[in-house]
Amino acid sequence: MKKEKQGTNIMRSSETSVVGRRISSVKLGLLRMTGKLSSWVAIAYIFRFVSSKLFFYAVIGIFSLQAAWFATSFYYPMLFDEKFHFDLAQAFTDKWLPFLTNESAGIDYYRDLANESGLLYHFLLSLPLRFIQLFTDSLMVQVVLLRYTNILLVISGLFVFAHLLRKANIPQGAVNLGLLVFAGLPMTTYVAATINYDNAIFLLFPVFVWSCASVLAFKKGTRIKHLLILISVGCAASLMKYTFLPIFLAGVLLTAGILIKRHGFKNLLSGYKKEFNQKYNIASKITLWLLGIVATGLIIVFCSVYVKNIIIYGSPSPKCEKTLSTQVCLKNEIFQRNYTSRQTVDERTPMPLADYVIFHWFKSMTLGFGYVAVNTEEGAKGPAPLAIIYSAIGFGFVVLLFIFAVGYRYIPRNDYMSAALVLSICTIVALLLYNTRSYYAYNEVFANQARYLIYVLPLFLSLGVYLANVLLKEARIAKIMLLGVCFYILSQGGGMLSYLVRSEPNWYLPNAKVRDVNTELKDSISPLISK
Description:
Blueprint: H1 2-8, H2 25-34, H3 37-50, H4 53-73, H5 82-91, H6 102-105, H7 120-133, H8 139-167, H9 172-184, H10 186-192, H11 197-217, H12 223-240, H13 245-263, H14 265-277, H15 282-313, H16 320-323, H17 326-329, H18 333-343, H19 353-367, E1 374-376, E2 379-381, H20 387-407, H21 415-442, H22 457-472, H23 476-491, H24 496-502, H25 512-525
Antiparallel strand pairs: 1-2
Helix pairs in contact: 4-8, 4-9, 4-10, 5-7, 7-8, 8-9, 8-11, 9-22, 11-12, 11-13, 11-21, 12-13, 12-15, 13-14, 13-21, 20-22
């Protein structure tokens, strides 16, 4: 307990409390005599600034500006599935329920939309799209504004992550630096600027973690409210992306198991029953009624999609050929790719499981955050990433693993941290199992993309910074040097810089002004960055 308290307060230790009050007069005298007081004070001010709210807002601003640059400048579609998400949002603009039929949508070449499990994102995205279409018919204006909408989702997620990490006893300075590294990964701002349901999950994931921890607190007067939030967020995220289902299930099982162990099943039911029957003020009643209505509606939609699919097709998300004819399914490019690959699976020899996991999957899920991959007028392109940032990402993940291996005992022990770690690990394991199963079904690699882990990064990066700070203890000079190295690396290809330096005119929207401005910007910035 003593070690944990010491670790929690380390970012506010002697470095940040230096200017006066906590320094003995003897120490001040010694520092003056050796001429080191000014440098010590400067170091303390640097740590104080890094740990401030101002620095946090600066990180949010840096992230926002980069994402806005991508959204305003880059060719449509950015990611290969951006058009898919826009078209489905467009299909909902004349509907008031989150359901589609293959015939009414008119876009059945995407897949069996009548039994699709992840349409809530597109239904909700259609709401701002309807408003935008009142003022413009321009496709590019609509796309750019929906990209901004997705950026707002991710920025909101960053605020929720920061709140969650502080509740988990991660100091503000560690949160700030973790999010700075997050903003400096080339892929994060690129994904945030696209029309994609991963951006909605980036917001809902920390909310779901927070709701699990809040339910575990079993605080009188808020038990039912937090339970309704947990159910609502879990259902909503699962209805946006099928792969959230195992995370939802893990969160429910984790929360229920811990509550029963702590309070006993009978006491648990009694606590909820008493709270249900107690008298509430008007504001609390309205809040609970609204949450109850939202939760009920989402449960109905959840059951009408997943429970129906399980009963009829034996799977929560059935394959296209189970619900439609193969001829119809072959209209879809992804199904066509998988179908062709399945016919020739015996012609390829699969690699051993260990080789696949270590040398392919892990590599893709780490170094992938430094890849530069875009769609252009001439098709998809993936030029070589910048050497410094790419090497730093690979080395950084190895260092992060080492830090966790050495400093795990300093990880704060509380419900918020436990929920965040367990659900983040469940996310990684679920994706690994899904990708591994897919690989051995086709003996070919499909959809191994680092962006699917984007919503576990803020936790691991911030926790890694915190543990590194604890392990370095009072080594102020070493911390300053590491901070300087971090800033230098980010200046050599972090975030949008990797894309800007590697960009060509056809990467951008077909607008002369957009292309001219970005070409001039590239010519100005490129000489300052090592290739």
